[in-house]
Amino acid sequence: MRLIASDLDGTIVGHDGKISARTVAAFDAARDAGVGIVFVTGRPPRWLDPLVDHLGHDGLVICSNGAVLYDLGKRRVLSRTTIAAADVYDARERIEGSFPDARFALESLAGFVVEPGFLDIESIELTELQPQWIRDVLPRRARVTGDVEEEIPDDESVVKFLAKHPTLTPDAFLAEVRDLVGDLVAVTHSSPGVALVEMAPRGIDKSVTLARYAQHHGIDAADVYAFGDMPNDRQMLRWAGHGYAMAGGHPEAREAADSVAPPFDEDGVAQVIERVLSANGHREVATTSTATATAATPTSTAAPDPQDPARA
After folding, report:
1. Where is the composition biased (Low complexity) (predicted)?
2. CA spacing 20 to 30 A to 119: which of 86, 167, 258, 260?
3. How confident is the model at residue 148 (pLDDT cuts 50, 70, 90)?
4. Would you say 296 and 130 are in contact if contact means Cβ atoms under 8 Å apart?
5. Calpha distance 105→302 (Å, rounded)
6. Do the bridges between strand 18-20 and strand 36-40 make them parallel or antiparallel, or are there none, so unpaired?
7. Is 113 helix (H, G, I), strand (E, B) or coil?
């Protein structure tokens, strides 16, 4: 094991916004053993502070489903792959033509822009964030517009385009949108219980950017342990030499992985890390799991400015 690549939400971060003390200890032990750690998430860079606050991670993070490589320590975007404005327009037209009730949003390096009706407590993209953050902060940080296409920045720095449907199941909407726009953009989803699809630049997913990261550091796929739980993790789990889907995770993730980690609520990722470290002769990891480290996104007084391109 030379590199651990872990998803965040539903994998090590719960819907209550917490990371268990056992998980923190396992990552600390891996780091002490010389194992590289990179987090690979659908979150945008500005919602990564918990990694610094509670896991002590100030290195690189692969964000926005692979579209952005971000340096947490320097608060700087190192690389980005963006969706062409023309592809946003075409994807919107095709989806809306089949699903007139769909609502849209886009994530760019300038911020998060949503259409009326997209942003609500039950169907917000990032339900993994603490409810208080969703209620009190996110609605003020998102810019609401009647037409998200008009808000595409001049530099076309769109890293994620989103579509939400009010009544379809998540998997049904995902399948439909893949068929409609799969030739334009990469389509996935990561929000359990919400018919919300996430579109990235075509040819980009978590595995693509992770493979580049590993190659840059001279690490073979065979030496990578990857963890995830949703469709947006499936390519990463398939690419890694040791891909672990969380027990209870989405069927697409479980089918892509060659192994299943114990459930999230049993500190599944920590259990795997502990076992591998022990098998390689490293120190025993403390396994206390009753204490937790809160991984809430900062309160509104400390939340990053979504207009700051370096923190978008």
Report:
1. 286-304
2. 86
3. low
4. yes
5. 24
6. unpaired
7. strand
CA gap 20, 84 in Å, rounded: 40
Output the six-digit token pair for 47: 């919602």
Q: Which two tokens stand for residue 59?
A: 């290195």
Tell me how crowded residue 74 is: count the other CB atoms within 10 A of its CB: 11
Could you tell me the domains of the chain? 3-80+205-294 (3.40.50.1000), 85-203 (3.30.1240.10)
CB–CB of 180/99 below 8 Å? Answer: no
Could you tell me which residues are beta bridge partners of residue 69? 62, 79
Neighbouring CB atoms inside 10 A of 215's CB total 11
Q: Is 298 exposed, middle or buried (0-12, 13-18, 19+ CB in 10 A)?
A: middle
- Let me know the angle formed at the C-alpha of 229 by 70 and 208, rounded to the nearest 5 degrees: 45
pLDDT band at 144 (very low <50, low <70, confident <90, very high): low
Q: What is the pTM of this model?
A: 0.83
- Measured from the Cβ of residue 136, the count of other Cβ atoms closer than 10 Å reads 13
> In the block, which residue shows the tokens 């993209």?
125
Considering the chain, what is the average pLDDT of its residues?
82
